[in-house]
Amino acid sequence: MMTHTSVANSLAALGHEARLAIFRLLVRAGHDGLNVGDIAQELNMPASTLAHHLKSLVDAGLVVQERVGRQIVNRVDYDAMQQTVSFLTAECCVGVKLTTDDAA
After folding, report:
1. In what residue span(s) does the HTH arsR-type domain sit (predicted)?
2. Would residue 70 count as lying in a domain?
3. Is residue 72 domain-resident?
């Protein structure tokens, strides 16, 4: 179950231009994911910079990494992505009743 903290961590990880680009690239790659070298080449990003940003996405639970031979394959955790989106939209359009303190 997503909490305010876990959703905030996910959104903070996506709140950087480079990490958002990495995440969107991995979304396009689908369930096969991409290895680190392919991501670096596609985004023209140095390996050390990419590693830093991937760590943030992994720590936020949005990306999972798997060692396949000598390569690290990165994939979006689609369940985590869907849970984040669902958390944001769960109470869409249900209305808000303001208290008199909030209206001031």
Report:
1. 1-96
2. yes
3. yes
In a domain, 96, yes or no: no
In this structure, what CATH number is given to the domain that contains residue 44?
1.10.10.10
Q: Is 23:63 a contact under the CB 8 Å cutoff?
A: yes
What does each of the 104 residues of the chain score in pLDDT, given as a tens digit?
788 999 999 999 999 999 999 999 999 999 999 999 999 999 999 999 999 999 999 999 999 999 999 999 999 999 999 999 999 999 888 888 898 765 55
Token digits for 89? 């939209």
**What values do phi and psi take at 49, rounded to 5?**
-65, -45
Sheet with 71-76, strands from edge to edge, namely 34-35, 71-76, 63-68
